[in-house]
């Protein structure tokens, strides 16, 4: 069949089917949720940190967020639909206040019609489409969501869908699937989405509507309907076995947001934030495509009995977009897996070897069950870290690094305890509540576990309680901060019960002893390392509508070292060193390569030959970078990146260079002390 004729037929068919009535029954608000709406309105205005006035300004933002949540890729609504629906942009605040949420259902029912008609058509006609796709034509699919606009006509939207399906088919073809398997996968994929649509009920619509409102206040205030509330509480208590990853719906995909330190996924080392899960397979069973599936259903598939295996087919967030399968053994995230651990890094200088101790702290933990049971030997991050410090001192360390990379937070009390190990006494963090009252928490025992030179190692995933410790030690001049700017999560949430479900609401903000908030900006390191983590995509500032950075009055606290005075010389020595460091050279090359690849993927080629050439070039580029690094280190080259076992390659260039920087700091201080002593002697 002629390509243009096929496309014309398909577009005409799309145009016809798009005006057909939906088979789904229109949803209506349940009376109980109208009452919850009024309750939510009151709680947000009185309980939220910012004391918001929910008015037309909030309503207009919520309207936009609601539309974005329903149709994030602008795949179903037309520009004319949005113009028609815009009459409701000032109605969201009234709907919440008055407990009349019909507006949310009116918008949703139109969305449901558009989705139902298109997906049902696709399900029926995918076989014919796949059989006639021509992969030799130089078609392209724009892939920059920030630049995508609402389609003006059905024909424009149909063209987009034709290319989108062709891209999906080509991706599967390049993964080795024949036409029959491609047809089966895509048909099942759209059946999943139809099933998802059919499963959506009035409660789901209310939750989407409610969270469009809460999202206008900050990204951490959320409403959980009863089922979502149950899932949230399960996640908080870690009472089900899984892979130890925080997942999020991202258009039709399931995206990895964060890996839990000590969890199976983090141990496995082949998953990363922003990777997309496209299929899940149980042990000994075929993979099940999960594109278009509800997030809670995907989570249910990933969870399972402890000790069993689950396979995830993922599309990596960086590098080649060819999917790969990762096998993970399910298990609970055990306290001991998240416990503090020690290590020693040997640094050779001028014929001598210096020992730098490093304490890896994945989270701020405390065994509350053991405490309640009266166990005097209960585990906590502060107790364990103190014990490890004593062991490291006996082993003759000259400096200490506290490694808070990927530490997403935990117990506030433990964060205060950890910081208190390195100062005799003093404030650690200030907390400002919704009424403007400021409370300072601090260390009062007058004791110090380690008073020597130290550094804190951070990355973009160091968040919340990690930022409290990092900020305190920076303000006191007690530690060099090395690595990346931290996440920027400086708010406190409280979970409140409602008539139906729960509300997680932001009620306070963290501030450093200097008065600076950790919110939004995070903590800026003294010496910054290059990072593969894109701060535009990960971190508080990358989230929707974060609360701003601000400052309050500083508390009284002493300073130990003026770290800013050391930074220029330390930075100079660091830069000179990494110019010749194979790991950092490879890291810089990889960052540059990923940026180039990201630009390239903003327009996706639908030509098979071009796509294969692009994928081959990316794999070759990544392999060349790795083998250049390996050659410089005296390691054997590999034929494929898949041949590398991350568990055997235990090199940690960040920790190694942090040790070098800390030793530079020690040497500068020793030299300054010698010069001062000599000056004093000469004056006498």
From TrEMBL:
It is an enzyme of class 3 (hydrolase). SUPFAM superfamilies: ClpP/crotonase, PDZ domain-like. One of its GO terms (cellular component) is outer membrane-bounded periplasmic space. The keyword Transport does not apply. InterPro entries: ClpP/crotonase-like_dom_sf, PDZ, PDZ_sf, Peptidase_S41A, Tail-specific_protease, Tail_Prtase_C, TSP_N. Residues 1-23 form the signal peptide. Pfam families: DUF3340 (PF11818), PDZ (PF00595), Peptidase_S41 (PF03572), TSP_NTD (PF17804). SMART domains: PDZ, TSPc. GO terms for molecular function: serine-type endopeptidase activity. This is Tail-specific protease. The gene is prc.
């Amino acid at each position: 069949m002629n390509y243009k004729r096929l496309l014309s037929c398909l577009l005409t068919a799309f145009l016809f089917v798009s005006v057909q009535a939906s088979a789904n029954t229109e949803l209506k608000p349940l009376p109980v949720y109208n009452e919850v709406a009024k309750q939510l309105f009151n709680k947000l205005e009185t309980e939220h940190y910012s004391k918001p006035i929910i008015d037309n300004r909030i309503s207009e933002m919520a309207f936009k967020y609601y539309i974005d949540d329903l149709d994030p890729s602008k795949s179903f609504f037309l520009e004319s639909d949005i113009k028609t629906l815009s009459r409701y942009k000032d109605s969201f605040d009234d709907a919440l206040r008055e407990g009349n949420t019909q507006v949310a259902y009116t918008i949703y029912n139109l969305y449901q019609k558009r989705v139902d008609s298109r997906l049902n058509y696709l399900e029926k006609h995918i076989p014919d489409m796949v059989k006639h796709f021509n992969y030799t034509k130089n078609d392209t699919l724009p892939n920059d969501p920030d630049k995508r606009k609402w389609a003006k006509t059905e024909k424009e939207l149909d063209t987009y869908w034709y290319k989108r399906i062709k891209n999906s088919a080509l991706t599967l073809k390049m993964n080795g699937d024949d036409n029959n398997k491609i047809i089966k996968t895509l048909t099942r994929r759209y059946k999943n989405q139809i099933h998802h649509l059919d499963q959506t009920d009035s409660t789901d619509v209310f939750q989407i509507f409610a969270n469009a409102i809460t999202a206008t206040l900050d990204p951490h205030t959320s409403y959980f309907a009863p089922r979502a509330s149950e899932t949230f509480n399960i996640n908080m208590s870690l009472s089900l076995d899984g892979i130890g990853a925080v997942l999020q719906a991202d258009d039709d995909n399931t995206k990895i947001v964060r890996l839990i330190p000590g969890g199976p996924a983090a141990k496995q080392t082949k998953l990363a934030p922003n990777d997309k899960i496209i299929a899940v397979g149980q042990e000994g069973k075929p993979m099940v495509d999960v594109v278009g599936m509800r997030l809670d259903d995907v989570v249910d598939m990933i969870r399972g009995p402890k000790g069993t295996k689950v396979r995830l087919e993922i599309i990596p967030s960086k590098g080649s977009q060819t999917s790969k399968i990762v096998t993970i053994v399910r298990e609970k995230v055990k306290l001991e897996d998240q416990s503090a651990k020690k290590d020693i890094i040997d640094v050779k200088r001028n014929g001598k070897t210096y020992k730098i101790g490093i304490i890896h702290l994945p989270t701020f933990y405390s065994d509350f069950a053991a405490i309640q049971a009266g166990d005097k030997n209960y585990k906590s991050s502060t107790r364990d870290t103190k014990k490890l410090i004593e062991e490291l001192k006996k082993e003759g360390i000259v400096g200490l690094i506290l490694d808070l990379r990927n530490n997403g937070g935990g117990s506030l009390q433990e964060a205060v305890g950890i910081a208190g190990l390195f100062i005799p006494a003093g404030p650690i963090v200030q907390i400002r509540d919704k009424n403007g009252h400021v409370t300072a928490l601090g260390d009062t025992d007058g004791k110090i576990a380690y008073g020597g030179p130290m550094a804190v190692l951070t990355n973009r995933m160091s968040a919340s309680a990690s930022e409290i410790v990092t900020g305190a030690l920076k303000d006191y001049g007690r530690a060099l901060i090395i690595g990346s700017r931290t996440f920027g999560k400086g708010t406190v949430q409280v979970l409140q019960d409602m008539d139906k479900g729960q509300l997680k609401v932001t009620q306070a903000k963290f501030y450093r002893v200097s008065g600076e908030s950790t919110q939004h900006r995070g903590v800026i390191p003294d010496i910054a390392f290059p990072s593969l983590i894109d701060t535009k995509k990960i971190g508080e500032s990358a989230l929707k509508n974060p609360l701003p950075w601000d400052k309050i009055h500083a508390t009284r606290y002493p300073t130990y070292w003026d770290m800013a005075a050391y930074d220029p010389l330390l930075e100079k020595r660091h830069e000179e060193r990494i110019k010749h460091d194979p790991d950092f050279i490879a890291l810089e090359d990889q960052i540059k390569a990923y940026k180039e690849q990201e630009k390239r993927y903003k327009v996706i080629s639908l030509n098979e030959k071009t796509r294969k050439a692009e994928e081959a070039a990316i794999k070759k580029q990544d392999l060349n970078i790795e083998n250049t690094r390996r050659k410089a280190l005296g390691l054997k080259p590999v034929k494929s990146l898949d041949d590398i076992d991350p568990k055997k390659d235990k090199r940690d260039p960040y920790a190694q260079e942090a040790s070098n920087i800390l030793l530079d700091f020690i040497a500068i201080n020793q030299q300054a002390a010698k010069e001062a002593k000599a000056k004093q002697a000469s004056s006498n």
